[in-house]
Integrase
Amino acid sequence: MPKAHLTQAFVDKAGCEVGKNKTDYYDTIIPGFMLERRSSGKGTYSLRYNDLSGRQRQHKIGGVDDVTCAAARKRAQQLRSEVVMGGDPGATKALAKSIPLYGELAAKHLESFRGRKSYEDVESVMRVHVLPRWGKTRLTDMNSRSVAQWLDEKRSKGLAPATVEKMRVILGRSFVLGASWDIPGTEKNPARNIPRAPLNNARERFLTGEEAVRLKEAVAASNNPQLQHIVGLLLLTGARLRELLDAEWKNVDVERRSWFIPDSKTGKSRYVPLSTPAVAIIEALPRFKGCPWLVPNPDTRKPYVSVKGTWGTAIKAAKLPGLRLHDLRHSAASFMVNSGVDLFAVGKVLGHANYQSTQRYAHLANDTLLKAVEAGAAKQSAF
C-alpha cells in the first residue's frame, strides 16, 4: 500500500503498478484518504474508515476526471470529521439510496385504492398532474415550499381550484399511507402544512321550464336511446349522474315509489322519493334479461362510463351551450323550491350532508316569497 502526499501533480503521474489490476495510494496527511488507480487508467478518490462496529468501510468521493484533487481532499476531510464524531458516511449514503421515488409510493397508493369508486379519479389526477412533476423525485427531496409553489403554478395556469385541491389531497394522502406502511422518507408530509385554498368554482345553472322542454325534445331524438330516460330521471329526482348510472332494479320499489341509493358521494345511503312522472319513466324502461342495472348501455348491458358524447350533441340541438349534466340536479332543486317546497325538504331529497349545501338555493325561495307578497299587494290594491 504505497503512501504519498496526494496532490494534483502526483495524481496526474500516478499509475497502476505493473502486473496488478489496481494500486491504492494512501494520503500521508488525511487518514484513510486514498487514490485508487486501475490498470485501465481510471482513477478514483475514496475514504476508508472503520464504522462503529469496527468493520472497514470505503466511501467513494469521485473519479479523478470529475473531481480535482483539492476538492477531493476537502471532501475527505469533511467525511473524516464525520467519522470521528461517530457518524457513518456509508450508512448515510445507503439510507439515501433506500428512499424511494414518489412514483414508487404512488404505485402503492393506487394499488391500495384499486376496486374503490374513487380509483379512476385518483389515477387520473396522479397520471395527468402529480406524476409528471414528482414521479422521479425522492420523497426526502419533496418539501412544503416546493409543493406549494407547484400548486400555485397550477392555479396560475387556470386549473380549476377543486382540481388543484384534489392534487394537494392526493399527494398528502400518499405520504399518510406511506407512513402507515413504514416507508422511509414519508415521516414528513410536504402537503400537511399547505393551507387549503378557498374553492370558489361553484357554478349554478338552472333550467327554465321552456329550456327543460327543449332539452327533453333534444334527448328524445338522441342516438342514445337511454339518454332521454337518464335526463328525465335526473330532472325529476335531483340525483347525481353516477348514482343513476349505477342504480340497480333491486333498489327501486315502484309500489312504494322509492329508490334506495346504498352508497352516495357523502358516504351515506339514502332513499329518494319517486314522483308519478318518475315512476312512469321507470315503468317504461327497457328490461334486459340477466341485467341488474336500471339504465344500462344496451350494447354492453353494463353501466355507462360516460354519456358526454351524446349529451354534447343534445345540448347543441337544444341551444343550451355549456349546460352540464350536473346542472340537472340544480334544476331539479330549482323547480322544487319555486313550487314552494322548503329548503330542508329539498336537502333531504338531494341527500345533502349538511344544511349549508342546500343554502345555495335560498335565493330561489326568496323569489317564491316575493311572488307571494306581490300577489298580496295586488289583492289589496283591488279594494
Notes: The CA atoms of residues 121 and 166 lie 9 Å apart. The chain has a mean pLDDT of 86.
